[in-house]
Structures are given as C-alpha cells and as structure tokens.
Amino acid sequence: MIPTLAIGDHILVSKFIYGVRLPFTDIVLIPITKPDRGDIIVFRFPKDEKKDFIKRVVGIPGDTIEVKEKALYLNGVKQEESFAIHDEAALPLRSLDNRDNFGPISVPQNAYFVMGDNRDHSLDSRFWGFVDFSKIKGQAFLIYWSWDKEASWVRWNRLGKILR
C-alpha cells in the first residue's frame, strides 16, 4: 500500500462500519453498510486466514474488472487513480502477466476485488482472487502512529493522517 501506508505506520480500523458481528465468528448480526470502491479494508488473507492484509477495494459485486497494460478498467471505463503507482516497466514474462494484463472478470455477489496502491509490488486479487465479505475485518481510516525504523524517529508528518 506504499505510498498510502509506509512501513512503520500504525492505523485505526473501524470494525463496526460494515456491521456488528457475532463474537468469534464471521456472522454479521446487524448489517450497517457494505464496502465501496476506494475503501481501504483490512481482511483475512484468503490463502492464509491467520494473516491480516490491507488493500484498497477497486471492484464491488457486479463490477467487471480488467487491467490492460497496467491501467485499471472498471466496467469498461479506464480509471484515473491518483493513489496508484507503477515503478517498473511492463514485463513480457508470462509468469507476471496477471500483474500488467488481467481479466476481464466479473465480481460475484458478496465478494470484492482489491488491489494495493503500489501496483507493481502488490500481492492482491489479480493473483489470489476475491475477498469474501465475511472475511473483511473493517475499514482503515487513520494513521495514529508512524515509526521510521531506519532513522529511529517518529514520522510526525504522518500522525493523524486520514486514509483515503
């Protein structure tokens, strides 16, 4: 999620924004809202649910997602994303083809397509599929602490930053 998040950032996550869950389960007792495009969410990683991941929602149920030459297309319309960065040239290797060219694919009901903001270095839905709504823990909304390990100092300019 670099540059939106930096290594050493500590974030606040609203765990109730998408509903009140039965404790110790994935069952939503009181639904409140659903994730929307652009939300930065924390969820259980589909390949290892012991790990939490954080990514940005780019596709909601019913959307068609496609990546052409690194550009994201949502329902056939190229997206202008100020937060997304690409720092490597397109690769002709077939093994990384999903990174630069993917889809089209339709997002099923109760599922979300997520991508990291650092698109060339993000392990995201292009590689392991959709995030089921039941696996979403909450929405990240604020950096409350940021520690620069290399400088051994607080990143004061990041404290209180609202995540968008």
Account of the protein in words:
The structure is a single chain. Strand 2 (20-21) and strand 3 form a beta hairpin. This protein starts with 8 loop residues before the first strand and ends in a 10-residue tail after the last strand. The protein is mostly beta strands and 164 residues long. The protein has a single domain (9-158), classed as Ribbon (Umud Fragment, subunit A), CATH 2.10.109.10. The longest helix is centred in the middle third of the chain and has 4 residues, at 97-100. The chain has two helices and 13 strands. 5% of the residues lie in helices and 38% in strands. The model has no long low-confidence stretch (mean pLDDT 92). Strands 1, 4, 5, 10, 11, 12 and 13 form a seven-stranded antiparallel β-sheet that branches. Strands 8-7-6-9 form a four-stranded antiparallel β-sheet.
